[in-house]
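My main concern about presentation is that the manuscript never shows what a single data entry looks like. An entry of this sort, consisting of the sequence and the corresponding backbone structure tokens, reads as follows:
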Amino acid sequence: MNRSKRMEPVVQVADNRQQLAAQRLGQSQQALEERVARLEELSSYRDEYAQRFESQSGVGMTGMSVRDYRLFLHRLNEAIEQQARLVTAARRELEMSRGRWVEARGKTEALNRVVEQFQHEERRAQDRREQAEQDDRNGRRRHDIE
């Protein structure tokens, strides 16, 4: 078995690892998008709630209502901060996933180049053998003619 054929299982393993890394990269991207959407949703809700508080406070509110509004806004702000931390973590995970995928892709490409080089060398060796056989046949024909 020639070298290029012996390398096929190694290339297949590398390709599988690259595909797995690509899937994980996609999952990380999706997780980030979901967390960013949730953060935007919370921020939008907080802004709407704060506007309602402002408009209600102009009309007049009881002390308990003011306290409840402020407490709820405080909880919303905490949820937003927590979600922002989740977004930051998701971005880090995305970058790590991207790095793993780039590394896996680089290994796969390097192995493919090695296999191509082996195949090129094998073709050249085959061409030399065929040329040597042709030369040998031509030499025998000349010898038989003479």
The mean pLDDT is 92.
